[in-house]
């Protein structure tokens, strides 16, 4: 079983790395709304990222919008520009929910991942640094069956979040008609993107009012065996989960592929959430039997976390 998990994750990593560079010049064929590309968006923290800002079909400069920041921006909108033609369908799902009045009006800021540096960018840094040095070195030097290391760079997720909060968000706030307050700012991701999203709301609770974490890759690595990370991540969440008074958090996972690894740890996370005072009004944790670890699977249920985070006001 462990060998199978290693193989599946390896394939996933290759897939996730390649989707960012498969067809950079392809013409977008969005179904709904339009994309404003911010190519090679430079930061003082030495990041240089492509950003895809999605605007809904009836977008108007005279209106104010909430903002959903999404990880892995290469694969959320347009299958035609990904290597394996898989996407979240975030444009179609979001546009439909807005047209039905189910959610408030919002834009999506898709932050493209770092290719082979994705794991180093998304692995939560503070719990990682709590691992004893010898174990940390072994954890970070895991070799991939297809060559190379799991972590091609030093872990730098704290710098990535500073980039998001201190550079990208202010740019979005200045250049688009958005509501910049905590109650209208959200973060979402899947797998390692889910891990960095729960880390983001825990590190910056005054910035993000909600986080959606689909198929959260709690192991942070190749397997659960001899793995020091996930226990440190639980300890971190116990100390740092944001207040349930003004935050909303969504978790889910399937039962197939990599998602089969997550159930026991998610159960422990759910216990922490209850202990912190979260309940059905501000927290969701769901299991989708038969669902796998792919953009298609996440897209099939994307309407649920978007509705939970951005539900329209009842006023």
In short:
With 315 residues, the chain is of the alpha/beta class. It has 11 helices and 8 strands. It is 37% helix and 17% strand.
Distance between the termini: 51 Å
Helical content band? 25-40%
Query: Biggest sheet: strands side by side, in what order?
Result: 1-2-4-3-5-6-7-8
CATH names the topology as: Rossmann fold
* Major β-sheet profile: 8 strands, mixed
CATH superfamily: Alpha/Beta hydrolase fold, catalytic domain
Radius of gyration equals 18 Å
What's the total number of strands?
Answer: 8
Q: Could you say how many structural domains there are in total?
A: 1
Q: What CATH architecture label applies?
A: 3-Layer(aba) Sandwich
CATH class bucket:
Alpha Beta
Structural class: alpha/beta
Question: What is the approximate shape?
Answer: globular
Which percent range describes the beta-strand content?
A: 15-25%
Low-confidence stretches: 1-11, 13-27
Q: What's the number of helices? A: 11
**SSE string, helices as H and strands as E:** HEEEHEHHHHEHEHEHEHH
């Amino acid at each position: 079983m462990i060998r199978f998990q290693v193989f599946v994750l390896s394939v996933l990593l290759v897939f996730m790395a390649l989707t960012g560079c498969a067809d950079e010049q392809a013409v977008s064929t969005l179904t709904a709304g339009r994309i404003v590309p911010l190519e090679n968006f430079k930061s003082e923290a030495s990041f240089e990222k492509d950003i895809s800002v999605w605007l809904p079909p009836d977008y108007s400069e005279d209106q104010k919008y909430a903002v959903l920041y999404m990880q892995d921006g290469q694969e959320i909108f347009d299958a035609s520009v990904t290597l394996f033609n898989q996407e979240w369908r975030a444009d179609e799902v979001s546009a439909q929910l807005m047209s039905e009045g189910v959610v408030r009006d919002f834009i999506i800021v898709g932050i493209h991942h770092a290719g082979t540096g994705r794991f180093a960018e998304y692995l939560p840094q503070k719990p990682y640094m709590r691992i004893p040095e010898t174990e940390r070195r072994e954890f970070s030097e895991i070799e991939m069956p297809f060559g190379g290391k799991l972590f091609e760079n030093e872990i730098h997720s704290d710098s990535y979040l500073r980039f998001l909060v201190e550079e990208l968000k202010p740019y979005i706030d200045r250049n688009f008609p958005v509501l910049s307050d905590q109650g209208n700012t959200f973060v979402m991701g899947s797998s390692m993107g889910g891990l960095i999203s729960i880390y983001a709301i825990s590190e910056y609770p005054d910035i993000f009012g909600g986080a959606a974490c689909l198929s959260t890759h709690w192991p942070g690595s190749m397997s659960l065996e001899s793995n020091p990370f996930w226990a440190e991540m639980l300890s971190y969440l116990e100390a740092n989960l944001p207040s349930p008074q003004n935050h909303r958090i969504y978790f889910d996972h399937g039962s197939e592929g990599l998602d089969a690894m997550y159930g026991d740890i998610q159960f422990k996370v759910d216990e922490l959430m209850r202990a912190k005072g979260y309940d059905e009004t501000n927290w969701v944790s769901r299991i989708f039997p038969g669902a796998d670890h792919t953009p298609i699977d996440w897209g099939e249920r994307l309407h649920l976390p978007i509705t939970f985070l951005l539900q329209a006001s009842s006023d």
